[in-house]
Write a structure and sequence with these properties.
binds ligand A2H; alpha+beta; two-stranded antiparallel ribbon; Isoleucyl-tRNA Synthetase, domain 2
Length: 261
């Protein structure tokens, strides 16, 4: 990381009912439980243009998360750390203070269904990823296995390991049917770059740090400079030309916000 703040796009992923117990008190449609405010998990990304390929949402099971009232009358769920930063960026209903409505651990929201912008899956699920860092972004990561080697590795781990699914209370239908969606093509690498590099570098798991770093370095730069969109309204355009446009459309349609840290 260089000088100055990092800009993240926060993708607003709407929680679908039934809500987990800890959030039932918070949101829920009017008449069922809670105040009826829409509740969103907010996933931090540098690659908003890949959101066409979301298959899941990652949280760390042991990280502290918080649900807070936003200035816009919604409820956001993210790491407690990020919520404090957001309060200083005007997100909270209380200036400079997190307006906490519930405190929870990642494990409390695993298995919750979400509706997320751009992806062709109607419903995606909150799943555990053990490499989610508490000191970066919101502690909520959108899973795009076509283009993120970390995401693909973590998805394969969960698919392969029934014991891991069981440990975190992940049901088969939340993960087994979800496959990478081709979002962009990189000449020489293909339409599913993360899958290609996972196989080429013989990555073993989400903990295969060095190889995953190598894969990330490769896809990030090449994706930006050489990538061509395969889905959505910008099919055939270069990623470098549409990246900002896609981000702006998400923000203008109230499906994303900008966050700095
Ligand atoms: B990116 P940087 Cl398709 N812990 O979004 C671990 N990883 C995190 C995180 C956290 N707390 N918060 C954000 N991230 C991920 C999409 C994507 C991303 C693609 C390809 C590469 C990629 C879908 N996941 O990132 O250290 C998020 O994943 C490659 C680095 O601030 C976010 O963008 O540079 C990226 O890491 C931010 O990482």
């Amino acid at each position: 990381e260089g000088v100055g703040p990092q800009e993240y796009t926060l993708i607003k992923m709407r929680l679908l009912e039934p809500y987990p117990e800890k959030l039932c008190l918070v949101g829920g449609s009017a008449g069922t439980c809670g105040e009826g405010k829409p509740v969103f998990l907010v996933a931090a990304t540098l690659r908003a243009e890949t959101m066409y390929g979301q298959t899941s949402c990652w949280v760390h099971p042991d990280l502290q998360y918080v649900a807070f009232n936003t200035a816009a009358g919604e409820v956001f769920v993210c790491s407690s750390r990020a919520a404090r930063n957001m309060a200083y960026q005007g997100f909270s209903s209380l200036e400079g203070v997190v307006d906490v409505v519930a405190e929870l651990r990642g494990q409390d929201i695993i298995g919750v269904a979400l509706q997320s912008p751009l992806t062709s899956y109607d419903k995606i699920y909150v799943l555990p990823m053990l490499t989610v860092k508490g000191d970066k972004g919101t502690g909520v990561v959108s899973c795009v296995p076509s283009d993120s080697p970390d995401d693909y590795a973590a998805l394969v781990d969960l698919k392969k390991k029934a014991a891991m699914r069981q440990k975190y209370g992940v049901e088969d239908h939340m993960v087994l049917p979800y496959e990478p969606i081709p979002v962009l093509e990189i000449p020489g690498i293909g339409k599913l770059c993360a899958v290609f590099l996972y196989e080429k570098l013989k990555i073993q798991s989400q903990n295969d740090k060095e190889k995953l770093q190598e894969a990330k370095d490769l896809v990030y730069l090449k994706g930006f400079y050489d990538g061509v969109m395969l889905t959505g309204e910008f099919v055939g355009k270069k990623v470098s030309e549409v990246k900002k446009l896609i981000q702006k459309q998400l923000i203008d349609s109230n499906q994303a916000v900008i966050y700095y840290e």
